[in-house]
Amino acid sequence: MNRNTQSRRQFLRATAVTTGGIALAGCSNSGGSSTDGDDGSGGDGGSEPTTEASGGAAQTSTVEMTDELTFEPKSIEVTAGTEVTWKNTGSIGHTVTAYEGKIPDGAAYFASGGFDSQQAAKDGYGSGQKGNVPKGESYSHTFETKGTYEYYCVPHEMNGMVGTVEVV
Asked: How confident is the model at residue 53 (pLDDT cuts 50, 70, 90)?
């Protein structure tokens, strides 16, 4: 009986593999670029220390976008005024797209590609992969308003590529 039991991670990997043709369609490491002028070098190339905050969120301002279709860490905590950088450490493109209804009132909307709404980001990606952050590049946003921000990757949302930024 244990032979048929899969861990959640094994299931998600299997699902990603079997739906890969659909989920990864349109994802590439070409076309599209970071709109913030970042060359993707990430400064000194070193890693920022990550510590765990209350509630399981990591205290870091760097999030990796991976080939496992995850934001790593999935949940972070930063202080108001912090610039968060999402680095694509994988070989396929990803987006960073805020859920418009899941950001604090009065907060600036954010999405790779510089879109001003969730629908514009989805439409932009659907018509030419606008907002795509290719392999080795990054996207950054400064969080000024305290509260919880939820975001996702447009082409990989159905694979569970979602994340949270808690601004304290």
From this structure: low
What pLDDT score does 156 carry?
Answer: 98
Q: What phi, psi does 139 have (nearest 5°)? A: -135, 140
Distances (CA, A) of 146 to 63, 81, 82: 19, 9, 11
Q: Which domain range does residue 13 map to?
A: 2-167
Kindly report the backbone phi and psi dihedral angles of residue 2, in degrees, each rounded to the nearest multiple of 5, phi listed first.
Answer: -65, -20
Strands 71-72 and 62-65: antiparallel
Residue ranges in the chain assigned as alpha helix (H): 8-18, 20-23, 118-126
Q: Which residues pair with 75 in a beta bridge?
A: 164
The whole-angstrom distance between residue 96's C-alpha and the CA centroid of its chain comes to: 4
Element holding 129 (H helix, E strand): none
Residue predicted with more confidence, 48 or 102: 102
- SS3 at position 60: coil
Helix or strand holding residue 84 (H, E): strand 82-88
**What average pLDDT does this structure show over 52-80?**
89
Q: What is the CATH number of the domain that holds 146?
A: 2.60.40.420
Distance of alpha carbon 52 from the chain centroid: 19
Total tally of structural domains belonging to the chain? 1
Burial 30-45 (b: 16+ CB within 10 A, else e): eebbbbeebebebeee
